[in-house]
Write a structure and sequence with these properties.
The chain has 4 helices and 12 strands; from the N terminus they run αββββββαβαββββαβ. It is an alpha+beta fold. Residues 31-35 have low confidence and may be disordered.
């Protein structure tokens, strides 16, 4: 007996809808299981405190002019915390020129050259920068935030110009650039508290 083509069409649509619904449910279950809120623990460095995931370990590293701490999870080093004399973020490993001869000479060197017919505008707008920069207020302190323009190049970071009466600076620089770390460290940055009365 031959089935009606209209009935077959609706059965196929019904099966596709059920399949898509099951797929959506599976994706939501996976997302909810891997994105559960992590437990955060407070860490203190001098007069600065911040909350980090419980799986993170802060380790003091050898340094001469500043205090340096590595941020680790498992066997992986995610980045560093610098406390003391640390300069603010800037990109100075390149220059922009409208001179083709100069560009050809430096384009593949350590101090990289970029060619532009609009050098002033491109420099002012950070066109060739690897990172984006902006200022934010974190618990009443002005901080410079750094985020990579591309997923595989640059850094995630925060810099405070002065965190105590001695004008010590603090920076966190993360070089593990996956999207999860970007969101996580922006959340961590919001937990930073500075006790300016100490030291």
């Amino acid at each position: 007996m031959k089935q009606n083509p209209i009935i077959m069409k609706y059965k196929n649509i019904h099966v596709k809808v059920e399949y898509n619904f099951l797929l959506l449910v599976c994706v939501l279950i996976i997302l909810s299981s891997c994105c559960k809120d992590q437990k955060f623990i407070k860490h203190e460095i001098a007069n600065v405190s911040m909350s980090l995931p419980e799986s993170f370990v802060i380790k003091k590293e050898p340094a001469e002019d500043s205090q340096v701490f590595s941020i680790n999870t498992g066997n992986k080093r995610l980045g560093y915390i610098y406390y003391g004399d640390y300069k603010s973020f800037e990109e100075d490993s390149f220059f922009i020129t409208d001179d083709k001869e100069l560009y050809e000479k430096y384009k593949n060197r350590e101090l990289k050259a970029y060619f532009s017919k609009n050098t002033e505008r491109d420099s002012k707008n950070g066109i060739f920068n690897v990172n984006y920069y902006y200022y934010d207020t974190i618990n009443k302190y002005r901080a410079q935030i750094m985020l990579p323009k591309k997923a595989n190049k640059g850094f995630i970071g925060i810099h405070f110009d002065s965190v105590d009466i001695h004008k010590n600076k603090m920076a966190i620089i993360v070089n593990d650039l996956n999207e999860e770390n970007k969101e996580l460290f922006l959340k961590i940055f919001k937990t930073i508290k500075i006790n300016s009365v100490q030291h």
